[in-house]
Amino acid sequence: xxxxxxxxxxxxxxxxxxxxxxxDIPTNPNLGNTIGDVINRRFGRRELMRGALAVTATTxxxxxxxxxxxxxxxxxxxxxxxxDELAWGNDExxxxxxxxxxxxxxxxxxxxxxxxxxxxxxxxxxxxQLQRFGYNNDYVGFVELEPxxxxxxxxxxxxxxxxxxxxxxxxxxxxxxxxxxxxVDIEMAAHGGSVFEIAKNGDGVxxxxxxxxxxxxxxxxxxMTFSGPAAGHAxxxxxxxxxxxxxxxxxxxxxxxxxPWGTYLMAEENFHGYFWxxxxxxxxxxxxxxxAEAVSMARYGTPxxxxxxxxxxxxxxxxxxxxxxNRFGWIVEVDPLDPNSxxxxxxxxxxxxxxxxxxxxxxxxxxxxxxxxxxxxxxAYKFVSSGVVTDDRAANMQLLSEGTLYVxxxxxxxxxxxxxxxxxxxxxxxxxxxxxxxxxxxxxxxAADLLGATPMDRPEDIQPREGGAVFLMLTNNSRREExxxxxxxxESYFGHILQMNEADGDHAALTGTWDIxxxxxxxxxxxxxxxxxxxxxxNGWFSSPDNAAxxxxxxxxxxxxxxxxxxRTGKSDGLYSLETEGDLRGHAKLFFRCPVGGELCxxxxxxxxxxxxxxxxxPGTDGTGEFAGFERASTFEDPATRWPDFADNMPxxxxxxxxxxxxxxxxxx
Length: 669
Fold this sequence. Notes:
With 669 residues, the chain is an alpha+beta fold. The protein is built from 15 helices and 31 strands.
């Protein structure tokens, strides 16, 4: 399928759906032993395809007691999530379980500095956008200053022009009709992240502190530097930066993390889509064959030509600056307590389409950072620092500059090993094109291919928990044909969750065991092959796990991203509790759901689990052709919903929502 066909296949015409369509095409040639093959050999394809209706599959995942009690089991065995489950559905607004409030804290366009006027979507400018909360809020993190006061850190992943700007349609297409430099510059200002103080008012309600010293916008033009083995390397140098040490901005920041020392990690995901070329082949696809970086570009899908930025800014045009893509696809560390600090892109953590960057301290004191490469048939990674975490915050901020990056390889017998991506070890040699550790990290995907890492079904968030458990979200893979032990279903539209247990409970360990926590989708349809705990109700099963959080009690929470595929389930995206232990292992319950066309991101627990931050991005866009009564593509003038304002003069606005328990107290306790 060429680029034109991909764009045409995104049925209802918005950028989020086009992202999904592009991601549906793997760039990994190493498909001889994927995670699906491994799962199939371990459990047997026939047994797993029977799904929750199959005795063998259910007892394999949940044990023999799971079959005997049905849904009444949740009460009998003590559900650890104490809330009345929300009913599934899809409509114009958000919903929360009874007994809870879900209030909008901040929306795209809201000021984050004093003296900024109310948002007017009819009069936008780049300068004005830099004073306001950006677009499409994904990751949310919180750094507490004192009880009831802290700094919120929010990623802004991408822009949906068709509902941002009046009279402008979808822009991820070849002609970019209607685009101007002014619009491009507004888009660039709406990317990156927002850092701002929030505090509880006299009524105990969280509010933005506009006059705070901590408030800051990070965007596509923010000056940043590099650390680690690839910093200053020749492949990182450009005409504007001959030293290879200074880069402007960060883009497509999906999930992320907060480190134990209180810094904010921004993961750069689909960076390839922002780059441009004027050289196209007969099918209209970018032609990189004459580029010195051609092999690397092909493996990363660069340039994607999703945006018109390269028409107005040479650094995003590979014909002018072929090394600029090498400066994106990293993990960025930001100090939210110092608005004058220079963010750092840590090359030691590798370059790929990072979904997130969740960290945890190993028993040795080393910091471990987990991250998935969000593309079909790509890999799961972790970084282990050389140094250890101490009470010296400044020293801790150097820990991500030096250490070892590993990629996961899964075995049929339920074990796995982490393979080191180290120059000179195994095939990572000059003979195979890796002249130094910098090359290994710039071309992390190519290095992992040679090591024989296991291709996965879109590895997204990877959430570690104390005690060595790690939960890997595998969102879906509609292109899968062959299955294996860790990717059990062909044409997996619904995804699954893998649980990994690091050896001896040590997150720095290089081996461990794995199992499938759940296989997502409707358990009442046998051919779907879903596997849940039988106590899971029709409201509780979900599709396409994306982000995850662990609360202070060690309980797992999952947010979903079905994209335009929500029509296959009829359910909006939302937040689910998911039991990971005991007789209720694999039991899910719906807690919150998004308005139509929105994706749920975040989630982040704070305030001793009395506050839960959620992010709803691109409301009113995904799959609106399937929305009964609307059944067309959303535009600025005619959106499927005007959430959260529901005002005629406002388009839908990505927003951060604060969830609290009515009357106070911890959530779901």
